[in-house]
Amino acid sequence: MSTIYDVARLAGVSKTTVSKILGGSKNVRASTLERVNAAIEELDYVPSCFAQGMRKGATNTLAVLLPEQYNYGYMELLAGVEDYADRSGYMTFVCSTGRDGRYEEKYLKEMVRRKVDGILYFAYRRNEKSLAYLEHISTNIAVVVMDNVLRGERLDCVRVDGSGLTKQAVRYLADKGCRRIAYIRGLGTYDVTTERYQGYLDGLEESGIPFDAGLVQEAEFTMEGGAGAARALWSQKPEAVVAATDMLALGALNWLEENGVRVPGDVNLIGFDNIPLCVWSRPRLSTISQNQRQVGEIAVKHLLARMDEPDQEPSRLLLGGELILRETT
Amino acid sequence: MSTIYDVARLAGVSKTTVSKILGGSKNVRASTLERVNAAIEELDYVPSCFAQGMRKGATNTLAVLLPEQYNYGYMELLAGVEDYADRSGYMTFVCSTGRDGRYEEKYLKEMVRRKVDGILYFAYRRNEKSLAYLEHISTNIAVVVMDNVLRGERLDCVRVDGSGLTKQAVRYLADKGCRRIAYIRGLGTYDVTTERYQGYLDGLEESGIPFDAGLVQEAEFTMEGGAGAARALWSQKPEAVVAATDMLALGALNWLEENGVRVPGDVNLIGFDNIPLCVWSRPRLSTISQNQRQVGEIAVKHLLARMDEPDQEPSRLLLGGELILRETT
DNA sequence: GTGAAAGCGCTAACAT
DNA sequence: ATGTTAGCGCTTTCAC
Q1: β-strand pairing of B240-243 with B268-270
Q2: Do the Cβ atoms of B96 and A82 come within 8 Å?
Q3: Nearest to B62 by CA among B120, B121, B139, B134
Q4: For the stretch A65-77, what's the b/e string if a residue is b when 16 or more beta carbons lie within 10 angstroms of its beta carbon?
Q5: CATH architecture for segment(s) A4-47
Q6: How far is CA A198 from CA A193, A204, A221, A249, in A?
Q7: Which of B18, B57, B249, B314 fits a 20 to 30 Å CA distance from B36?
Q8: Phi, psi of A175 (to 5 degrees)
C-alpha cells in the first residue's frame, strides 16, 4: 500500500500538493496536476480512510440498523437505500440488530465509534434505551428513525401511514356494501399494531358502522396466528376481513379455503404490506402496498437533508401507500 | 468524544499506561488498573477506530460482497454469516454489487481501503477482473470466493456441489423407474449452470439411461423461462423433469397445471435451491436444499481459518445438500 | 510498573 | 502555486 508520501516523491512535489489535488483544489499548475495524477495511477494509490477519518471526522458512510436478521420485507427497502446513498456518494453499512433488537446498543455504539455520518434506525419494538442514546448522539450524527412512533423524542422520523391506509381499506369495503368488517390485529406490544388498528376503528366510524368487539381478533404475526384468528372470527359471520399484515391474511385465507369458505364469494379479505407471496396465494391476496424501494430512498433523502441542516427542527414524514385489489375482494 | 489522553489525565497516569490496559496487559498495579477503569467508565471512553486502524492495520471487520441487490436466496446465508462472525468478534460489512456486478470493483477497492480483515466474495457471473484483483490482494487480506467455479486462481473457495446434488436427483428418479428424464437448464453464461447440467449428464450415465438432446431445454432463470421450457418439453412426453432452479421448476409446474398435466401423476418434478416459495406451490415442490444458513457459517469459518494461516495452500470446499421430497415426486 | 518519544498517513493553517 | 509544520488519537519501542 503506497502512501501519499510515495506519490509526492514520485511526482516530485510535496505531499501537501498531492493532498490538495486529492481534495479537488483548482490552484494547481496543469503540468503538476498531470504528474501527480500519473503517479497516483502508477502506484495504484488510494488514500487511507483511517488517516482521513482521523483528520476530517467525516467518513462518507451511512449505517442502517435493521431488526431481526434480514426480514424479507426489507430487501426492496435496502435496495432503495443503497441505490440512493450510492448516487449521493455514500457507502452503506448494514447491521442487523438481531431478534428483539438485542444487539441494538452494541451496533449503535460501534457505528458512533466508526464515525458514520448518518444512521437510519429501524425497529418495530420501542426501545427506550436506544431511542435515548440516539437522541443523545443526534447532535453529532444525523439520525432518522424509521417505523417507530416517537413520543416526544427530538428526532427525525419517516414511516408509513398505517392508520390512514388501513382506514382506506375499511372504507373501500364499506363502500362495497360490507357492514360486518372484521379485523385481525397483531400482538399489542408493537406501535405499528396499535396504529393500524386505529385506522380500522377510524374506518368504521367514518363509514357509520358501529364497533363490534366480537369482530376483532388479536394474533401472533404468523400464518398460524392468522388461521387461528379466522377460525375464531368465522362464527361471527363477517362479510369482510382486514388483517394487520399479509402473513396474517394469508394464514386466514388458508384456513378459510380449507374450511370451504369461498373468498371473495363468501368473504372479502385484505392484507397489509404487499409481500411477494401475495401473488402466489390462490386467490391472490388484495393488500396495501407501501413501495418499499421508495421508502428507502426517501429515508436516505431525509437523512442527507438532516446532515445538511443539523439545526433544523425535527420533522416527521408520513408516507402514503396504495390499495392493491387482486382476487380476494 | 473523549480521547485516551483525557482518560490518562483523569486517572493521573500517562496515556501509555492506559493503552497498555486497553490492550489487556498484566503488568499493571491493581490500584492503577482500578483508577484507569473508573476513568474510562466515567468518560464513557471508546478508543477511536481510526487511530487504532492506523496503528494496527487490523479492524475486526469482514466484508461480504453480494451480486444483485438482496436476492432473497441470500437472506438465510447472511444470517449465518453475521451470526458466526459476531460470535467470533467480527463486524460484518455487507455490500451489494448491483446487477451484473457493476459495482464489484468499486466496492472491492473500498473494502481494501477500509482495511477489512477478510472478504467473502459472491458472484455467479465470472468476472475476470475482480478475480484477478482478489488474487492480487489475497496476500494481504483473507479472501474466500463463494459459488464461483475457479479456474487456476489461487484462492480459497466454498460452494455447493451442484453437480453431485443434481446427479442425486436424477438417480432418485431413475431408481423410481423413470427413464425419460428431462432437464431444464439455465442460460449458458453461468458456471453454476454448466455444473448442474453436468450432474444431470452424470446421473443419466450412472443410471444407464442414454442421453436424448430433445429432453433438454435451455431457459432464462425466470418462471416464464420455466413455463416455456415445459411447453417445449411436453411434446417429448417426459416422465420426469429436473430443473436447474426452483424458479424454473415453478414456472414449469404452472404451465403443466394449466395444461391439464397432473404432477406427480403424469410427470415428476424436482427443482433446486429450496426457496421459500416451494412450500407455497400446489402441489408443493420437491427440490434440493442447501441449508444456506450453514453455508454462511462455513464460509466465515473458512475465512477465519485463512486469516489464521495466511500461507496455507488454497483449498476448495464442496458443500453437500439434501433432496427434499414434497408433493411433485 | 510506568512514562517519554516517535510515528502511522493524512489535512489544514500558515508561510513563501 | 507550492512547501513547511503541526497535530488528529493511538500503539510501540525503549528507558527508567
Answers
A1: parallel
A2: yes
A3: B120
A4: bbbbbbeebbbbb
A5: Orthogonal Bundle (1.10)
A6: 9, 10, 18, 18
A7: B57
A8: -65, -30
How does pLDDT run across A32-61, given as a tens digit for each residue? Answer: 999 999 999 999 899 999 999 998 888 899
Q: Please, how many CA atoms are within 13 Å of residue A111, restricted to the half-sphere of its CB?
A: 34
Looking at chain B, which residue has its C-alpha nearest residue A3?
A: B113
C-alpha cell at B217: 431445454
Asked whether the domain spanning B162-289 has the same topology as the one spanning B61-160+292-319, the reply is yes
- Is the Cβ pair A79, B69 closer than 8 Å? yes
The architecture in CATH of the region B162-289 reads 3-Layer(aba) Sandwich (3.40)
Helix axis angle, B246-258 to B223-234, nearest 10° = 50
Cα-Cα-Cα-Cα dihedral sign, residues B102, B107, B112, B117: negative
Whether the CB-CB separation of A284 and A327 falls below 8 Å is answered with yes
Number of Cβ atoms within 10 Å of the Cβ of B210: 7
Q: Which grid coordinates belong to B259?
A: 395444461
Non-local (6+) Cβ contacts of A197 within 8 A are A166, A183, A185, A216, A244
B196 CB contact with strand C at below 7 Å: no
Query: What CA–CA distance (Å, rounded) separates A279 from A295?
Result: 21
For residue B133, what is its C-alpha cell? Answer: 484483483
Taking the domains of chain A in order of start, what are their residue ranges?
4-47, 61-160+292-319, 162-289
Q: What is the pTM of this model?
A: 0.86
What CATH superfamily is the domain A61-160+292-319? Response regulator (3.40.50.2300)
The length of chain A in residues reads 329
> Which residues, other chains included, contact A128 with Cβ-Cβ below 8 Å and sequence gap of 6+?
none
Say what the pLDDT of residue B107 is: 87
Q: Which of A216, A279, A267 is nearest to A243 (CA)?
A: A216
Q: How far is the CA of A140 from the C1' of C12 (A)?
A: 22
**CA–CA dist B22, B19 (Å, integer):** 5
**Is pLDDT at A72 greater than 70 in this prediction?**
no
- pLDDT tens, residue by residue, B52-94: 999 888 888 999 998 876 566 787 888 899 899 989 989 888 8
List the one residue out of A140, A162, A144, A163 whose CA is nearest residue A154. A144
Does A50 sit within 8 Å of B50, measured CB to CB? yes
